[in-house]
Amino acid sequence: MASGRSGYSLFVGNLPYQTTEDELGNFFSRAGNVVNIRIVSDRDTGRPKGFAFCEFDDEQGAQRAIDTLDGTEFNGRSIRVNWANSR
Q1: Radius of gyration (C-alpha) of the chain in whole angstroms
Q2: In whole angstroms, what is the distance from residue 8 CA to residue 84 CA?
Q3: Cα–Cα distance between 60 and 39 in angstroms, integer?
């Protein structure tokens, strides 16, 4: 999905390398309506770098994700969740 700054983007760090976009989207959907997930991969190797961006359609869902999911366990790792851009 090409984003035109219509959503609210979060940085998600400390992800297990085998994480899929579907898994992450399902996990974050408990906080609100997820419109896009992008797992960042190394340009040269194609391997995931262990972080992603999760975009919500409203600020309330994004803030709820930060409040409820930051520091929680996801597939054996304690993830970091915060705003992707400065607010």
Answers
A1: 12
A2: 8
A3: 22
User: Per the structure, how many domains does the chain have?
Assistant: 1
Integer Cα distance of 43 and 46 in angstroms: 6
Quote the pTM value.
Answer: 0.89
Distance of alpha carbon 18 from alpha carbon 33, whole angstroms: 23
Give the domain CATH number at 54: 3.30.70.330
Q: Which of 49, 48, 53 is nearest to 37 (CA)?
A: 53
* CB 58, CB 67: distance < 8 Å: no
pLDDT digits (tens, 9 = 90+) for 4-23: 446 899 999 999 999 999 99
Specify which residues 48 forms β-bridges with: 41
